[in-house]
Structure formats: C-alpha cells, structure tokens
C-alpha cells in the first residue's frame, strides 16, 4: 500500500486466524491447505485429539513440543514424541491433553510440493466453561429479575444471558424450579398448515435444548403474589461444561384491585321500616377486598334525609362486645383524622436481633428505640459525641445513661474494694428514675439495668442474675459473659435476689453518671450477605444479657426468601401507651438509614395489616447522611377503622438493599383516640374471628315517610382517595306511613311583647304572633281557640297581671273561636294573630309569661293536637316613687312652715333681750339655711317619669342638689359656729380687755366670715357643676335583664350620678366635718354660759339627734341598695333631711320661745345679766349694757361682756 508505481507488487491472500489470546469459534476446528494458517483444534480435559497435516504437505519432524500434555503418532499412541522426532512415515499425530490446561501451541516441519521445508503451527484449545453475562441493565451479580403481575404470564428469553467462549449454542439445565410459578418450555414449531408458531411444552428432565430457542413461559399460581426463585446453569452440549448458577428472581406483583362493594337493596325491594319505629332497623353494609393488604374500611358517603344512621361502637374490653350505637351525623371526610396525639414506642414485644458486642454499654440494644429521641439533630448525624455545655439539657425520666456502680451512693459500693484497694470506676447501663433540679446541676437517682447470664446446673443451662464486676484483679477490659459475676469474692451471690435493684442516688452528669447521647437499635451483623449461606436459625446467647425477653432466634433467609413482599431481613414489634387509630408514623435514624420497607399494625383479631410498604430508600437516606441531616421515614400511611397499640417495623438490610447494618433511633406513632362517625367499625365473629359485614342502624325521623337512601364506599387504604371502590353502594329504605295528628309549630323563640318607652302613650299596643301547623298526611287543617290569653301573666315573683286580648283581623277572639288560617303548601297552614294590650300605662301590665291554647285538627276531626302557645310581656319596671312623694312633700311643708313661723316670731320679738342675745341676723341665716337644706328634698323627688319625659327636669334637680345641700348646711351651721365663737370671746376677759380683739367681733365682720365659708362651698359647687364631665346627671341603671331577651332591662333604678361624685362628696364632707368640729368645740367651750347667750347645749342635742338619725338610716339604705324600693328609698333620704333640719329648728328656737314667755335659766355665766335684761324688757335697748356692766354678780372676766365695741353695732 502506498506504492504509486505503474507495476505495484502483489501478494497472495491469507485467511485471518484466531490468536492464542482469543478463543476460536467452535466452527474453526479444521485443518487448512496452507502451512501459514495454523491448525486449530479443541479438546476436552484428559482427552485426545487427532492432528492432521496441511493438505499438499508431507510431514518431516517435530519442531517444538506442546507445553502441556503429550504428542504421539496415530499409529503408536504409547510412544511420546520428542523434539526433532521423525514423523515422515506418520499419517496423523495425536495430542493427549492433561486436566485443565491453558491454550497451547506446538510446531512441526513439513515439505511442500517443491520439497522445501517449512514450519506449521498447531493450536490446541481446551473447551472453556460457559459464562454468564456481566452486570447489565437487567442482570446483576448472576441475578436476573423478571417482574410480572399476578394472574398473568410472561415469556422470557434466556439465550442472551449465557455465553460460550467458543460461540457454540448452549443448553440450559434447571437446578431449582419455583413452587408457586409454573415454568414451561416455549418451542418454535413450523408446519405447512399454520406456519411458524410457538407452543408450550413441559420441561423434560429439567433441561431445555438450544435448538428450542431457550425461551421459557412463566405463569404464577392463581392466588400467588410475591417473590420466587428459578435457578439454572448454561451447559455446553459439546463439552458438557456448566456455567455458574444464574438466579432468575421472579417478582409477581400483586394486582391490588380496588375494593368492591355489594350494592344495597334497591327501590324495587327496599328495606322496610314504619315511620313510628323509633328502634330502627339493622342494615348490612357489605364490601370486600381480595388482597386485604392494608385493611378494608367501609364509609358512609351520603346520609339519609328522612332518618338517621347509627354505627356500632366497639366494646371497651372486647371489640365485638358492644351494644352502644353512635350516630353518623356527618358524611365521610377524607381529610378528617380526628384529634391526633403523639406517642413513642413504650415497650418491646419482639425483635429479630440486635448487636451484642457492646452489650455492657447498652449500645445497639433494641430498647434504645423506646421513648423520644436522644440524638442531637443539629448537624451531628451519628449521635455519638461528648457535647459541650451548651448542648447539655436536663435529662428526662427513663433516659439511658451509664452509671458507676462503685459510686459511694450505690447500694453495691461494697464491691468497689478488694483488700482495701479501691477498684476502678465501673460504668454500666442505667435508667433515670428520679430527678431533682434542672440543667447540668441536677441530681438524679438511677437504677442499673438488671443483667443475666447462663450457668450450668445439673447439666442444664439456666438464666440467673449477674453483675459486670472488675473482680479482685481489677480487670481493665470487661466483657460479657466472662465478667458478669454471679458470686462475689467470698462465694456469696452478688445479687441477693432476682428482683433486687441496683440503685445509685444523688448523682449527676460527670458526678457518677455519663450521658453520651448514643441511643439506637442496630440488628446483628452477619458474616455473609449471601442468603443461601444465611438460611439457618441465628441464635446468640449474649442477647439474654438484659433478660430472657430479648433472647433472639432469627433466620434471615426465611423472611427474605419467603413469600412475603416486600422482602425484609429484620423486624421489631413494639407497643405504645394508648390505643389509637393510626394517622402517621415516623421512624427516625441518625445514620445507616433507608432500610425500612414496611410498617404494620395489629388488628383486634390479632392479624398484621400493612400501614405502608415499599422499597428500601438507600439513595434518599444517603443524601441525608451526606449533609449530616437526620433521616425520617415518614410516609403516608393507610388509615384504619380500629384502634391498636401494637405495631411492627420490617427492615431490608440485605446486600441487595445496600443498607448494611441499618439503625433505628426512635419510632413515633401519631394517632387519634377517636375516628369520624362515618367510618364503620372493624367487625368480626368472636368465635371464629372471621371478618363480618358492618352493621348500621337506620332510625326514621319522626313523622317522615316515603323513600329514603344513603350511600357508602369501600376503601382498601384509608386516606388515599385513589384506593376507593369504583362504585358507591346505595341502600334504599321505604318508610311506611302511619296517620298522624297535626303538628303545631310555635316560634323557635318565645314571642316577646315589649312595652318600650315609645309605646307607653296611654293607647293600645298590638303585637303580632303567628302559629303554624303541619300535617304529614297533607290533610286540610282547622285552628280553634280553646284557652284565651286574656287572663293573666305571672311575673318572676309570682304576681299576676293583665295579659291583653287575643285578636284576629280587629276582632277579639274567645274560647271556641275558629281561627282563620292561610295555606302555605300542602299540609302546611299558618294563622296570624295579635296580642292587644289596651294601655301600657296600666300598673297591672307587668313583665311575665302567659299562654293561650290552640287546637288543630284535620278535616275528619279524628286526629288533633292541643298546643299551648306561650308568649311573654316585657315592661320595664322603673321603680318610680309614688306614695313616698306625698310624705316628702309633707316633710318640705313642715320644715318650710316651721321656718316661716320662726322667721315671723324672730321679727316680732327682735327687740326682746332673748332674741337680741341670740343675734337676729344669725337666727335669720339659720332659718334660711334650713329652708335651703329642706329644699334638697325637692331634688330627690324628681325622676324621668314613666315615659322618660322628665329626664331634663331630673338632670336639673341632680345639678341643684349639691348647691341646696351645701349652702343649706353652711347657712345653718356657719352662723351657729360664729355666734358660739363670739359668745365665747365676749365672755373671755382677754377679749374685753383688748379693744382690737373686741372690735373683730362685730356682726359685720362675722358676716364676712360667713361669706368666706359660703365662698368655699361656692367654689366646690361651681367645679362640681360646670367642670366638663363632673356635673351630676340623672341616669338609669338596669337592675335585672330578662332571661329571654338579655338586652331588655325589666327592672331599673334612676339616680343622680357623676364619675367624680365620690371625690366631691369627700371634699364637701371633710369641709363640713371641720365646720361641725368647730361648732362642737365652741359648744363645749360655752357650756358654762347661760343658754340665753349660747345654744351649745341644745345644739349638741341637735347634732347628736341628727347623728342618731344618720347612723340608723345608713344601714337601712345599704340594705335597700341591692333591691331598692323607690318609696322606701325616697322616704328615708327625705326623712333624714327633714329630721335633721327639724331638729336644728326645734333645738335652736324652742328654748328661745320658752325663755321669752317663761324666763331664763338663772344658772351659768351671764345669767344675772340676762335675767335683769328680761325684767327691764320695757326699757330701751341702750340701757341694757350699763346695767349689765354694773352687775355685782359679774365676775372679773365678764364685767364688760355686753359693752359695745367702738364703731360696731349698737345692739352689742
């Protein structure tokens, strides 16, 4: 090639041949006609093969020998040829192979037709063992998986998975035929009639020949689903050599059909029930699910309209033992899961296995899944660390820790010493049973986990209590069972009894206990992952370390190679604390997760049903582990119609799953104590515990008849809308009619007839009321009045009052009246009536209940109903005073009349020494004060009236009240105070000896003091009246609301109110008390002065009398506050004012009138002077003073008492 000359060189064509590095095709076992082409031969081990010479060549000698085996001539098989051996006379050679040899080559010398010697190669190949295709899309590790549906069949071509190095067609030999899958040979047959067709033939002698095509047909048994194994080898028909075993994994998938329902009775033959049957009828709800993998739930999807459905409630102890029925008041809601609660695994009932190589530390034990997780989830995926202080928290009750059994607070501390030598600390697994305090400083009481071991007694192994103990040699490394001591150093039992507890008190983190957070279950690890090699029962005596309950006996292959699907290798069964309807599960794993393939729940009849099942999630879990995240197996589960506390988790930790040594940290079950009523209860027979149809009870509504129906469905995975029966079942119910009396329908709420303030006009008030009657028989109805409403109402206190008249179309109805009624629809009539109250003003109209009775009957008059129609009249009782106003008026008239009389008397006798001694000006002021004070009664008498029209007047009266009272009080007592003050000073020698002081006692100056005191009250009243929001107004406070209309006040009381009234009352009271204190003081100071000059004695009596009245009346007013009677209230308050003023008038003026007509008392200071003055009453007033000054009976202290001051009033 590459020669561009005109005459290129040519070469003879040589056939390509196989080299020793690649096996020749089976058809290449030939001898050529060219010495350059090697002779290629196949031979079996320990066999021989004839070697022929190339055609056209004659043999000469042996050039090289084969590296294995022997070479002879065909004629002499006994003599082995050597190098250079003459073979010119030989016609053929024979190669004798040894056992198992590699491909080899030897050479011989031959002559061609030109008598030229050339070399010729002979290649000898052993027949190679057939092999199985390397891993591919459908095959891996000599396993080929075939997936098919149950009740189906599948043809599978097997030719391409077994190969020959030599290219020969291989046969198949079956080594294991599955039990639940029929395997047949598919043969290609050609005929003139049908052409080429496939036929199925039985497999003869477990072999199928390559000329049949190596196609098989798989057909599972009718009811089978799961995994089966077909095992085979490829066989060389020439050499008989066989390949390794190929396992055909046949996965027969369940054809999980939707559940089915059996339709109920139809309209032609419905369920029958009488409308008066209050007990109801029982109806079967039937459904079925062939697989029942995830349970079967029957639900009510549509409720009846003319009756009610009830379902049977499971019994408390036995599920089937129940006579209770629960109403189904709502149709099925796919998303109603009740009120879920969270629970964690509480106790272990059974487990396949667990690692025991770290038994002493309790690591990997199955009980580690109990309770809430201990693993830190913030980036620590292994839960195996020494946490810094910020990660430590208070340890929960039941937490697993490691506790030092040699601690001083341990009840086994005596074992910590050997020949006075303290042994090293010995930390064993323990549970926290008490806690004191919080955080890292908390103290705990722990109980060491009881440990056990086997001992030989009388040739038998028995389980006894033991304790891991370092022994007298103080061993450093401890192991089980070698160091689990049954007896102590002295030969005594180390554990006194089987129920003895090793307890350590008052220990804490780093102070007797260690908590490292590692807490998960890990199944046992096995030496092989080949299921065939693991097909034995695995036992481990170390598993009894924490009790016989955990003694494991487990065959991994039995579960993995069994019929169940999905396949699993490990399992754990546990209980939670409270039975619930499962809603969700959460299986947490800190590492090596993804192996959970199924979660099951135990039914009431002790059967396991799947909540969820699937394939291992290795890749998903691996991604979580890569980012150090916690893995949660939280699938959607199939909800059930029964409560349970027993659950089972199945794990695939096989080599195929890739989840080697799977772990589980905790199991959380979320479930609801109740299930929605529309889910029918799980049911079965007590004796046979066979599944029964669910029963419901149908109870017709009162007075309902005709056709009714309800619908139901079946679900084989509750909560999954795709797992619902295709069709809904329907049950029809025919309610047969019974003639019924009419039904009188009164208003839902009792009619309330309100006499509001706007209605109290003195005229009639009418209220509408409607009476409706219906008849389920659709008859015409007649209304008749059989009891009139015009008798009376009865209020809450039992008092009777007028109830008004019953009217219709402006006509008064009487007993026996036939009422007009309007037909609303067939069997439904209504009659509109009125209650007429002729005058809401009437006192006899009061709040209370009343009724009238209507008789309604059908046209035949046979069926009738008497129905009382109740209504209620509401009228506000304002508690307005009536009789007491008359007494209050009398009080005012008495006080004003007496004041007027006294005013006239003072004026007439103003020149009399007695009057002059009392000072006319001050007596006049006292009379004005009593008039103002008594006028306060007028403000108490004001109210807003029965119709509220007096509200403005009442407001004005409230505003005037403090003015009248304060000015009345001050006008009354200020003059008394100043008069007593002046008298005390006039009879004081110090005053008379000082003209300046005496000058200050003039009437004018004293009146200025009165004005000053008035001014203080004036300022207080101005603020009380005109400051924004301070003024007292008339308000009405509700005392009682009606029980039917809580917004209507049936009782109220009016009073004067201000938000700041209490403050002003305190200020006024304090000021007036100061005034009274001064009056009392000067009453005491002038006690020795004659009564003609000082009214102290009588004033003391007046104040005491007023105080008695006040103290006696205040408790009465307090007692009346909660249930105030307006007349009593007004009478007491007006009486207090009247009596107070009347007392003042009486005790001030009565003695003066008496002295005027009968003379004065001759005792006391000034008695002589006033006696002389009275006797000289006919003398001029100007002479009184000298006479008094010249009296010999005067003391040194009062010789000039009556002398007038310079520039003052001439009378004094």
Automatic annotation (TrEMBL):
Bias-annotated ranges (Low complexity): 1188-1205
Keyword Lipoprotein listed: no
Transmembrane segments: 887-908, 920-940, 960-978, 1006-1027, 1061-1084, 1098-1118, 1130-1150
Keywords: G-protein coupled receptor, Glycoprotein, Membrane, Receptor, Transducer, Transmembrane, Transmembrane helix
Domain G-protein coupled receptors family 3 profile: 884-1158
Primary location group: membrane
Entry's Gene Ontology cellular component terms: G protein-coupled receptor heterodimeric complex
Protein name per the record: G-protein coupled receptors family 3 profile domain-containing protein
Species whose genome carries this gene: Mucochytrium quahogii
